[in-house]
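Hi support team,

I've been running sequence recovery on a batch of backbones for a student project. Most finish fine, but this one hangs at about 90% for roughly twenty minutes before it completes. I'm not sure whether the input is malformed or the queue is just slow. I've pasted the structure tokens below so you can try to reproduce it. Let me know if you need the job ID as well.

Thanks,
M.K.
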């Protein structure tokens, strides 16, 4: 479950990196083409995240003050590519104009276009690659790997499949690290859009693991997660039950298993008893026997519950 993005849920974050294509005069060093006036459109390195969206500054220069410039946002999917604010602005001294791009639900190449309302040939476009990083829950069982509780999860940058993806754990590396062919490492460079994240210890606070992604050399925003671990038992008093049996009583006390954030576990798990003290006899004539510590899977219609069975031996006296 993991996730916040910045996190969207325990779930999504949008990441953007600018890749400039100017539809005007050739600009030295950019390898672009020209069709009109010396207009240039630039997208800044992605800025801060607000409500799980990338915020980036878009600037254009049309060479003259007082020109009315309209901004448009489109994507290959043409569904929810994001938005700009303002959608229209007047150039200031020197011909400059600025708007702010906020990513939407689409991932992949997003096109931002600025156009002079009175001269449709005076326009420029640039592309922003919007990525979304997804990852799953991560667990720690002190080296064990019970079924249903992944100790390794995949981080996937949706929106691009090729390029240079540089991943780095920059916070919480005592809880999770990247995996390089099974070896824990703090940073990793891949040529595809996936990386493995493995647990090395239980988190102390929600979202205390931060994984930074840079795409084709451009820095991205952190993906936040945490490592869960079973931590304590929580009484389920609605299931507790005491019945009379021959020679005494039998009581079943039920517990939920919860993690360090007080969230109930997701799946069945094996449990072991451990006595914290030796036997304490309240009355010297009591005949309760000593029992060995035992273990077994969680039980019941809810597989994340355990039951403590307390009963007296079938011999008089029943204490």
């Amino acid at each position: 479950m993991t996730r916040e993005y910045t996190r969207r849920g325990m779930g999504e974050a949008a990441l953007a990196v600018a890749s400039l294509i100017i539809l005007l005069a050739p600009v030295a060093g950019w390898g672009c083409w020209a069709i009109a006036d010396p207009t240039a459109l630039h997208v800044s390195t992605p800025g801060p995240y607000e409500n799980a969206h990338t915020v980036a500054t878009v600037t254009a220069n049309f060479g003259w003050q007082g020109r009315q410039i309209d901004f448009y946002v489109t994507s290959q999917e043409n569904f929810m590519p994001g938005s700009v604010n303002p959608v229209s602005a007047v150039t200031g001294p020197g011909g400059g104009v600025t708007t702010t791009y906020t990513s939407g639900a689409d991932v992949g190449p997003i096109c931002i276009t600025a156009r002079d309302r009175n001269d449709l040939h005076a326009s420029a476009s640039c592309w922003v690659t919007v990525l979304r990083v997804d990852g799953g829950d991560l667990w720690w069982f002190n080296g064990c790997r019970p079924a249903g509780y992944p100790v390794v999860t995949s981080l996937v940058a949706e929106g691009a499949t090729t390029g240079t993806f540089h991943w780095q754990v920059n916070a919480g590396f005592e809880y999770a690290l990247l995996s390089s062919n099974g070896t824990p490492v703090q940073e990793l460079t891949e040529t595809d859009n996936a990386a493995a994240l493995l647990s090395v210890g239980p988190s102390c606070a929600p979202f205390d693991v931060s994984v930074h992604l840079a795409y084709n050399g451009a820095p991205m925003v952190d993906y936040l997660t945490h490592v869960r671990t079973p931590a304590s038992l929580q009484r389920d008093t609605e299931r507790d039950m005491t019945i009379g049996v021959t020679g005494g009583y039998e009581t079943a006390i039920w517990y939920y298993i919860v993690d360090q954030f007080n969230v109930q576990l997701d799946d069945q798990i094996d449990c072991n008893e451990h006595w914290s003290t030796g036997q304490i006899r309240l009355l010297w004539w009591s005949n309760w026997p000593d029992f060995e510590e035992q273990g077994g899977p969680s039980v019941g219609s809810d597989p994340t519950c355990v039951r403590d069975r307390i009963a007296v031996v079938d011999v008089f006296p029943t204490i």
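--
Follow-up from support: It reproduced on our side and the slowdown came from queue contention, not your input. The radius of gyration is 30 Å. No action needed from you.
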